[in-house]
């Protein structure tokens, strides 16, 4: 396992998206929901056939050389693992030498989106279905890039992505949650989509359950949220078209049980 700040031209992650990554919230230099991030990284390595980095190598990505160094209270750590170099064309090397890279930067949540809620649109792009890749956070995110290009309005914070059968799967960079009949739900991710670590934690604590959400039912649900393990949970207050025309509004209540539960898991103050 090699660590390098530079990516050579023949790296397979650069050439083919042959690798996985994690985006981790650090608080006072320590990773939040790390067990879930490590588990997803391991699943991705197993699917792609890339050796899993040692715990020591992963921990080195957030440990500092100076234990007395003053760190930002909150940071974002991005870990990228590629298969490394070698092989011929798409054929991977028989003995891979993975390349582990990382970068960290200070982070401040968008508090206004927590309190005021956001507008979302429905993306025209439909996600391809590939069960072998479903759930993992592999390096080929071109669908998300194309979907994010669909709107430029600053008042639209996220776009919802559906599959080939017009079932809601996720947002461009977040998972989707909704409330119906007093219960909290999230779409299944067996065919496509990324299994976010905050979503996994909410499922593990039995705070949400899995159910399909057809686009045709979206305007009938009681409430809607998007969220991930870095930004926390944003309540959706309006579904809009790409040009900002409102299709559906949801009331923002004074008490948000799902957001409070998710933010406790992330260590955000209530």
TrEMBL record:
Catalytic reaction list: 4-amino-4-deoxychorismate = 4-aminobenzoate + pyruvate + H(+)
Subunit structure: Homodimer.
Pathway involvement of the protein, from the record: Cofactor biosynthesis; tetrahydrofolate biosynthesis; 4-aminobenzoate from chorismate: step 2/2
GO molecular function list: 4-amino-4-deoxychorismate lyase activity
EC number(s) given by UniProt: 4.1.3.38
SUPFAM superfamilies: D-aminoacid aminotransferase-like PLP-dependent enzymes
NCBIfam families from the UniProt entry: pabC_Proteo
Pfam families registered for this protein in UniProt: Aminotran_4
Lineage of source species: Bacteria, Pseudomonadati, Pseudomonadota, Gammaproteobacteria, Oceanospirillales
Protein name as it appears in the record: Aminodeoxychorismate lyase
InterPro entries hit by this protein: Aminodeoxychorismate_lyase_IV, Aminotrans_IV, Aminotransferase-like, BCAT-like_C, BCAT-like_N, Class-IV_PLP-Dep_Aminotrnsfr
Organism encoding this protein: Vreelandella vilamensis
Cofactor entry: pyridoxal 5'-phosphate
Keyword Nucleotidyltransferase: no
UniProt entry tagged with the keyword Lyase: yes
């Amino acid at each position: 396992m090699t660590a390098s700040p530079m990516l050579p031209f023949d790296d397979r992650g650069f050439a083919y998206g042959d690798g996985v990554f994690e985006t981790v919230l650090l608080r006072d230099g320590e990773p939040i929901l790390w067990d879930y991030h490590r588990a997803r990284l391991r699943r991705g390595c197993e699917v792609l056939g890339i050796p899993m980095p040692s715990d020591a190598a992963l921990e080195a990505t957030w440990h500092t050389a100076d234990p007395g160094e003053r760190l930002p209270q909150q940071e974002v750590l991005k870990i990228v693992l590629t298969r490394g170099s070698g092989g011929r064309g798409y054929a991977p090397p028989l003995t891979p030498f993975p390349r582990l890279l990382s970068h960290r930067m200070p982070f401040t949540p968008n508090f206004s989106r927590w309190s005021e809620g956001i507008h979302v649109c429905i993306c025209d792009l439909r996600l391809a279905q590939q069960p072998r890749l479903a759930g993992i956070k592999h390096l080929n995110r071109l669908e998300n890039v194309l979907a994010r290009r669909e709107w430029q309005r600053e008042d639209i914070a996220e776009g919802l992505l559906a599959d080939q059968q017009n079932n809601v799967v996720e947002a461009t960079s977040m998972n989707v949650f909704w409330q119906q009949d007093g219960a909290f739900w999230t779409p299944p991710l067996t065919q496509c989509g990324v299994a976010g670590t905050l979503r996994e934690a909410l499922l593990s604590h039995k705070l949400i359950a899995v159910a399909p959400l057809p686009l045709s039912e979206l305007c009938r649900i009681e409430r809607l949220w998007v969220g991930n393990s870095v930004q926390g949970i944003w309540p959706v207050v309006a579904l809009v078209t790409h040009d900002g025309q409102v299709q559906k509004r949801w009331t923002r209540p004074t008490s948000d049980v799902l957001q409070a539960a998710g933010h406790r898991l992330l260590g955000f103050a209530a």
